Structures are given as structure tokens and as C-alpha cells.
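Re: your question about Type II toxin-antitoxin system ParD family antitoxin

S., sorry for the slow reply, the queue was backed up all week. Below is exactly what I fed in.
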Amino acid sequence: MNKIDRRTVSLPVEQADYIDRLVASGEYGSASEVVRAGIRALQKHDEVIEHWLQTEVAETYDRMRNDPARGIPLQTVAEKFRKKAIERRKGGD
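Result:
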């Protein structure tokens, strides 16, 4: 079994209430179980992001560095974002 290291943490009332509701619902046996589940989820999320950065982002960066002509000019990207923003304001999503 893993060694347990006790910690004291401060939480906003909303988060503390959320933990209490999860424990009261029976989904978790204690506040510590809720926190451990949250940390496991955060670790998994970080692993997914790190994998994405190391594979897709790094590969794309290398391709762009080796052949800058493949890129899209900043002005073109900015114009697309402006058009999308205008469409959303009009409700056109």
C-alpha cells in the first residue's frame, strides 16, 4: 500500500461544498477520496497534453521550421478570426 502523506488545504466554499455533496451522495467515501480522484484526473490531463505537445505540436513545429512557406500569413489568420467574431456577434455561429 502507498504511504500516506497528510496535508491541510484551503478551498473556496463552493469547492468544499462540492466535495461534501460527492461524499454525501455516496459516490466517494471521504473528502480525501474526492481529492485523490481529482488529482488523478489532473495527472491524466497533464499526460495527454504533454503527449500532444511532444508529438503533434513538436512535429508541426519542425515541419514549419524546415519549410516556412507551408505557413499561413498572420494577417490571413487574423482576418478569419475577425470574420468569425462578427458572425458570432450577429448570431451566425
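The two ends are 52 Å apart (CA to CA). The mean pLDDT is 94.

Happy to talk it through on Thursday.
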